[in-house]
Amino acid sequence: MISSLVAWRRSASAIASSQDAANPRPSWSSAVAIRGSPFAALEFAVQVLKVRHIVVLGHARCGGIRAFAEGGPPLSPGDSIHKWMSLIAPAVELAGPPEGDGDYLTRLEQASIAMSLDNLLTFPYVAEAVRGGRLFLHGAYFDVATGRMFVRDGIGFTPMKVEPVSSEFEQSLGEHGN
Ligand SMILES: [Zn+2]
Predict the structure, then answer these.
(1) Cβ < 5 A residues, ion ligand 1
(2) Helix/strand/coil for 34
(3) Residue 5 · residue 42 · CB < 8 Å
(4) Which of 40, 139, 173, 174 has the most CB atoms at less than 10 Å from its CB?
(5) Is 58 exposed, middle or buried (0-12, 13-18, 19+ CB in 10 A)?
């Protein structure tokens, strides 16, 4: 469970992040039905801060995704956790059958990122900003075991090139309390 949505402007000088279990990023219609701070954070980041980039960040060995894949704890259908986790359901189709190629949980974790990116585009103000070239959406996947970061491209997730962090950048993070 790590930051699922990180939006920033001017090289991370301002970071708005929203953290949710197993990183489902709901569609606009679910957002209207559910209402809550993640949607307010998204709207504020796009409409007010005018962020240029939004990164949907998923991670390996996600307990939330595992719980979902394994049927999860016995929660009632009316439970908030159950409702929130049910947002992952469409990713199951994207991930393909459990017996397919590669690790199923990895495929499901990455499919959840792809689904969240699609869902972001269902927010009219996000779609409009993307169409206008004012906003860019990215998918990233962090392998907590190896410390490797992957970025989503047209085909799948490829390892990210890592460059040394400059001291100016570190300082700027400190100034903003992140
Ligand atoms: Zn997680």
Answers:
(1) 1, 22, 62, 64
(2) helix
(3) yes
(4) 139
(5) buried
Residue where the block lists tokens 């090289």 = 11
* pTM recorded for the entire structure: 0.72
**Chain segment 117-143, per-residue pLDDT in tens:** 999 999 999 999 999 999 999 999 999
Ligand 1 centre and the CA of 93: distance in Å? Answer: 19
Asked if 43 contacts 129 with a C-beta cutoff of 8 angstroms, the reply is no
What 3-state class would DSSP assign to 126? helix
Residues 69 and 91: beta-carbon distance below 8 Å? no
As given in the structure block, the two tokens for residue 20 are 């949710």
Distance 5 CA to ligand 1 centre (A): 12
Phi then psi for 105, rounded to 5 degrees? -65, -35
Give the list of residues 6+ apart from residue 61 with CB closer than 8 angstroms, or none: 105, 144, 145
Q: Which residue has the tokens 């954070």?
A: 41
Average the pLDDT over 46-72 and give the result.
Answer: 88
22 C-alpha to ligand 1 centroid (Å) = 4
What separation in Å is there between the alpha carbon of 169 and the centre of ligand 1? 27
